Inverse folding.
């Protein structure tokens, strides 16, 4: 049989092993289509090009991905390197396959420039954002893995470029997706070309010690296996030497020799369930001496990329330390294949104890939302939207900039520098001139055109810009550069809003008013207020609303002062002295009522106040008491403080008859005390009852009693006793309320 057909047949058998009812004709059609399209093309090795798509598809199948992913892997270079089109692939193999191929093609076209770590992280985020379907990333990683496996046929410059890309972009992506097996191989292959001397040195030293390594691994593995059999624990035990890049990083980054590497060896014990993991841990610590501070429980607290395992470092024979990892089969598949394990080992992903870090929150949500779906459905609906609120674009120099979704060239310009934004006169996206309000897309190359003759930003830019950074920088420019214009603009807006609120400008510019107004709006002068409104620092609507409140407050203060002044004469009539008894007979005259709605017998135009101990309202029988300096205090007739037996003989002449004025009266403040069974929502029910009664409430407080009851105090305003009785009836109807009484004198 033809070697290429043999490789295809092996691929088909691999996919059929985990795919029930595989449509072998569709898979074979994809292979023949790719073979035909790539006919005549050769790889650098001299092999037919179809070898590469077959190899990528084989890696994809190793991950256990769905059939569409395998077909997309076979076709992944067709749009890029042949005459095949998106429409043609969609027609032959379905829309899903075509979108996967298109997605991989888009990622292939991205140009990388090696920069600092922040740049690389933005680039990785951009790739994730561009790949709406997670399978695109997985196929691209598999593509890169096979390219790295065959990198020996490329030029030294190409080898280094691709290895650096792999180390900075694809290995971290594989790690983020939890695909440790692929990550390790990518790192080792990259190191081979990035530091061939260091790589060769480690490989040779490890090769020289291989016999000793094998003997040590076998002996420890046997001891652990035998102990687990004694304990009746079903498990699989195997050991390995750490991969080359891991050793390299510790040797060269930490300046250590191979003998100083603490955990050169690693053993895995794989069991059936979580309780067994902890049983095995106990056995391991019994067999070998654990190293203090080297135990990590990633089962109880998983890593953000879904990794779970128990890690412990122990001292073995001859004082050699080694690491033991203990996990279940489900955890093992997740550790090896990450998110890709879902397709092949679905149960391994049905774990709710996943990480919560922001970078991986999307993985957790995806998996939790798809736990009850079958693998095919999961694949069909799986989308990557963790960066939906960001867009990643390139500068002409290849730097990646992260901007809010919906960002425009204005946001891009101010992200680079304020001076660039202020001098912008136009923008190109992917080489074409575009309007300022163009929404940027992932992967766009944006160029800002500037001019020294630019007049600065337009006010309309504030509406176009998406980022707060851009808007703030635009406002700062207007604040600094256009003060006179801002003052004129702001004044016009302010006076227009004053007119709308029916407030004359003269009412706020008066000498006795303006300082209070400026303090209220937090500006030193009116021009500063106008300037702020002009450049957008504040709004005319907000400023006028604050001024209106302040004018009302000042009006109330003025009225109170005027009332107090008019009462001075009356008070001196009522209380001519501070200690001598008051001769009320001298004050007898016509009965006149005060503004409070009270008639004081024999006195007119006198100061009247209502006693706070009993808070009388119209309809209550009342009596007055001439106070020293505060006019006539009005009590309810049943107030204990006004009871005849409590009156002092020397003050008998100060008790006077008072009565209510008939007709329409203002509201009066009074107090109620509620006793009720303590429960949740009691205060809310009281408030709702008062609201339905349509009375103004000045104060409402509640306190719990030790005996399980509660006391609620209410201060409210009513027109008369009849309205108060209606309110009391509503309160009595509240569940748990057993008594409502008016406050009495104390």
């Amino acid at each position: 049989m033809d070697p290429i057909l043999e490789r295809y047949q092996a691929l088909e058998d691999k996919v059929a092993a985990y795919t029930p009812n595989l449509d072998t004709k569709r898979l074979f059609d994809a292979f023949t289509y790719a073979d035909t399209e790539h006919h005549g093309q050769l790889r650098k090795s001299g092999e037919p090009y179809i070898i590469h798509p077959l190899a990528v598809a084989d890696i994809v199948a190793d991950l256990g991905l769905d059939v569409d992913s395998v077909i997309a892997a076979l076709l992944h270079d067709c749009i890029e390197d042949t005459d095949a089109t998106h429409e043609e692939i969609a027609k032959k193999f379905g829309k899903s396959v075509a979108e996967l191929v298109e997605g991989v093609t888009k990622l292939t076209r991205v140009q990388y420039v090696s920069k600092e770590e922040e740049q690389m992280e933005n680039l990785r985020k951009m790739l994730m954002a561009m790949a709406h379907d997670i399978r695109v990333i997985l196929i691209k990683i598999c593509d890169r893995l096979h390219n790295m496996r065959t990198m020996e046929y490329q030029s030294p410059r190409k080898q280094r470029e691709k290895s650096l890309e792999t180390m900075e972009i694809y290995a971290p992506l594989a790690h983020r997706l939890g695909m440790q097996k692929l990550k390790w191989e990518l790192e080792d292959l990259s190191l081979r070309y990035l530091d061939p001397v260091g790589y060769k040195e480690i490989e040779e030293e490890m090769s020289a010690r291989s016999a000793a390594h094998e003997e040590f691994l076998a002996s420890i593995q046997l001891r652990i296996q035998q102990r687990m059999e004694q304990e009746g624990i079903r498990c699989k035990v195997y050991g390995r030497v750490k991969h080359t890049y891991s050793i390299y990083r510790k040797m060269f980054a930490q300046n250590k020799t191979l003998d100083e590497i603490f955990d050169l060896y690693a053993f895995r014990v794989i069991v059936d369930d979580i309780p067994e993991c902890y049983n095995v841990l106990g056995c391991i610590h019994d067999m070998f001496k654990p190293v203090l501070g080297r135990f990590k429980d990633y089962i109880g607290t998983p890593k953000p990329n879904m990794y779970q395992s128990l890690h412990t470092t122990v001292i073995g024979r001859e004082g050699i330390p080694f690491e033991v990892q203990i996990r279940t089969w489900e955890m093992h598949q997740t550790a090896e294949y990450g998110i890709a394990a879902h397709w092949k080992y679905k149960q391994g992903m049905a774990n709710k104890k996943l990480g919560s870090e922001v970078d991986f929150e999307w993985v957790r949500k995806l998996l939790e939302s798809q736990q009850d779906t079958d693998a095919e459905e999961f694949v069909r609906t799986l989308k990557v939207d963790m960066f939906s609120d960001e867009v990643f674009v390139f500068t002409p120099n290849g730097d990646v900039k992260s901007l809010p979704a919906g960002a425009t060239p204005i946001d891009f310009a101010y992200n680079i520098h304020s001076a660039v934004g202020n001098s912008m006169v136009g923008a190109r996206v992917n080489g074409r001139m575009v309007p300022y309000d163009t929404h940027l897309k992932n992967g766009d190359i944006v160029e800002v055109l500037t001019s020294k003759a630019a007049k600065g930003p337009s006010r309309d830019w504030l509406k176009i810009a998406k980022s707060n950074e851009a808007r703030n920088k635009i406002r700062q420019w207007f604040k600094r550069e256009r003060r006179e214009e801002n003052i004129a603009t702001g004044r016009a807006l302010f006076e227009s809003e004053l007119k709308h609120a029916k407030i004359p400008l003269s009412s706020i510019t008066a000498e006795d008013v303006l300082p209070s107004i400026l303090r209220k709006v937090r500006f030193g002068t009116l021009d500063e207020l106008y300037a702020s409104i002009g450049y957008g620092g504040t709004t005319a609507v907000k400023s006028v609303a604050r001024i209106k409140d302040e004018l009302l407050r000042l009006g109330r203060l003025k009225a109170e002062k005027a009332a107090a002044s008019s009462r001075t004469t009356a008070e001196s009539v009522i209380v001519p002295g501070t200690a001598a008894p008051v001769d009320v007979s001298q004050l007898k005259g016509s009965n006149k009522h005060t503004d409070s709605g009270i008639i004081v017998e024999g006195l007119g135009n006198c100061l009247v106040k209502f006693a706070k101990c009993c808070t009388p309202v119209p309809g209550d029988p009342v009596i007055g008491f001439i106070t020293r300096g505060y006019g006539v205090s009005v009590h309810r007739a049943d107030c204990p403080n006004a009871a005849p037996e409590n009156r002092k003989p020397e003050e008998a002449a100060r008790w006077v008859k008072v009565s209510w004025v008939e007709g329409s009266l203002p509201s009066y403040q009074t107090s109620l005390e509620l006793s009720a069974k303590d429960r949740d929502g009691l205060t809310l029910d009281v408030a709702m009852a008062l609201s339905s009664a349509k009375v103004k409430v000045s104060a409402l407080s509640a306190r719990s009693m030790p005996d399980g009851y509660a006391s609620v105090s209410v201060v409210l305003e009513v027109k008369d006793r009849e309205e108060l009785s209606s309110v009391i009836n509503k309160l009595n109807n509240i569940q748990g309320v057993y008594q409502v009484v008016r406050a009495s004198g104390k």
Remarks:
- The radius of gyration is 42 Å.
- Residues 206-381 form a domain with the Beta Polymerase; domain 2 fold (CATH 3.30.460.10).
- The chain is about 50% helix and 15% strand.
